[in-house]
Model the fold of this input.
Amino acid sequence: MGSMHTGLEDRFWNYGKLAAYFAERSQGGGPGLIVTGGISPNRQGWLAPLAGTMNWPTDILNHRRVTTAVHREGGRICMQILHSGRYGYHPFNVSASAIRAPINKFTPKALDEQGIEKQINAYVRCARLAKRSGYDGVEIMGSEGYFINQFLCQRTNKRTDRWGGDFSNRSRLPIDIVRRVRKALGTDFIIIYRLSMMDLVEEGCTWDEIVSLGTEIEQAGASMINSGIGWHEARIPTIVTSVPHAAFAGVSRKFREHVKIPVIATNRINSPDQAEQLLEQGYCDMVSMARPFLADPKFVQKAAAAKAEEINTCIACNQACLDHIFNGKKASCLVNPRACRETSLVYRPARLAKRVAVVGAGPAGLSTAVVAAERGHSVTLYESANQIGGQFNIAKDIPGKEDFHDTLRYYKKMLDKHGVEVTLSHQVDAEFLRQGKYDHIVIATGVKPRPIDLPGIDHPMVLRYDQVVVEKRPVGKRVAIIGAGGIGFDLAEYLIHGAAQGTSANQQLRNWYAEWGIDPAYQSRGSLVTPEVMPPTREITLLQRKTAPHGKSLGKTSGWVHRLQMKKKGVKLIGGATYQMIDDHGLHLNVDGINQVLEVDNIVICAGQLSVNDLYQQLDPYGKNNHVHLVGGAYLAAEVDAKRAIREGAELAARI
Ligand code: NAP
Ligand code: SF4
Done:
């Protein structure tokens, strides 16, 4: 289980929760080895003010709670030492040179010789304290553009002393750190070194430098090498949903030829089958997954019991994990709201089994039904469509969001496993529900597209987003999209693609590398080559009324990928639009006081949603007994997403 910052590491009073989080994942034969989220070796290495730090013997008390809990369950755990260098979001940050990161407003102080020595000592002290806390080892974070990476690359290391210049000087820091940690800790202690195998930034390392570093790190005493992919400031996606599965395992395989110690493959590996394949085909000796363990704490146990289809798969959305962390909130998981809330959101067996009707099999309804049934209630799920999934049926057809199919597979399996009676193609009414004499009725009827009022809106060229994605209505070559929220961006993505279909996974990966400018031979500096942008299949204009930049509401860690993709594909972004009318010529609008006509073949409306909750209104008198509940989009359509819908469903089901 790879390192994943949860936010619980940062406050000592959350260590009980952190212990419960890891213990739940270790119970009954979990991952062979766990690595904690990053812990700083000193104040200068903080990711943000007051971030989790281990530099004082009193820290041992907190960390012991974690190691004891994991060891009690038979697990093994290493602590990641993460010095953020110039990524530290605070004024005390330090680096090789005083060059500000493009993703930070604080310029680091360039360390002098004494300062560097202090940082190395801090790593050694931190590792010693980790051992005293009961950790089985440490992972030294040497990738993703953090402190050590900043010394390794010319991009951030402009020094002319013995820590800069040629690669033997630039690599002195990590080699010294590993050697001195090994010397201080002895042989009975794991040292994982996370090595940046592709920097994906200009002036990154060359392949020869990476191999040379790997062999030196091995000689310095590392027990294993984990693969690090891409700096945080890289403008190439490395973990979002649209990154092909195991997209970077090839570099781990190539690197593995050069060292004898185990090599770990990472990034966008989210199923036991893929992991098994990588091991069998010699890509790596171990596989590390981080987010998949947030999504399903029993990933390994289910895989080992040949129940992989019961795994709640991480869909790489980042919405509740990394987006939370980058917004200063604690991590959780979109598909598993219990992640990091193991002590507060508990699905206890129900004391009294009740009859529960859930209306609507979208994310909110599915989550309610499964958790309620898991707790022992007798649940019937009614859905008017002929399939479960609701809005997920739109998401799963968006290119790059194919993993959403897995969420539906998981829910189907869970409905079956927990004995939920599923009635599809059944539109229930209030009378039917009243007569059912249910103990609880949960209205999870979701949302419907918001209609807009515009002269000519009934023109045949106008389509709703669901008509395009679900009903697969034909769409012309020139398209205007009204509304640039999450769905507007998704629809643009859907309409600009098309070429990848029918090609093999290998070809898709090659195309993806080419589009993003990744060197498939990993030879060039930073593994970068000139991107080859495939021509879009359509001419798209994405419109909004507000003047704020497009895509502001998208996730922090994925929004930039969508925006960059739109730019690459020549999607025209128009903000500050006032829509006037639609006729045979196209869409008439006013932008910046100038009237214009967008001559298009189709106009697709992505103007948000409205709640569908008529049933709740009709059941109101009955609901006064607190037996009728409203969840998800049916409760509030504004900014509803699967994260809120699934969480609300689970929380309700945990209490009834
Ligand atoms: P949304 O994010 O609320 O966006 C609705 C868009 O429609 C806005 O751009 C709004 O911009 C426009 N609009 C609203 N009322 C309008 C009107 N009367 N006439 C014309 N335009 C109007 O809704 P959504 O795109 O349907 O997404 C729904 C939820 O799903 C959101 O919470 C979203 O975050 C989530 N989601 C996220 C993603 C993702 O992160 N990739 C993908 C899909 C869905 P103006 O008012 O400026 O015109
Ligand atoms: Fe995976 Fe999304 Fe859950 Fe994060 S929030 S662990 S990316 S499913």
About this structure: The first strand starts at residue 34 and ends at 39. The mean pLDDT is 95. The chain has 23 helices and 24 strands.
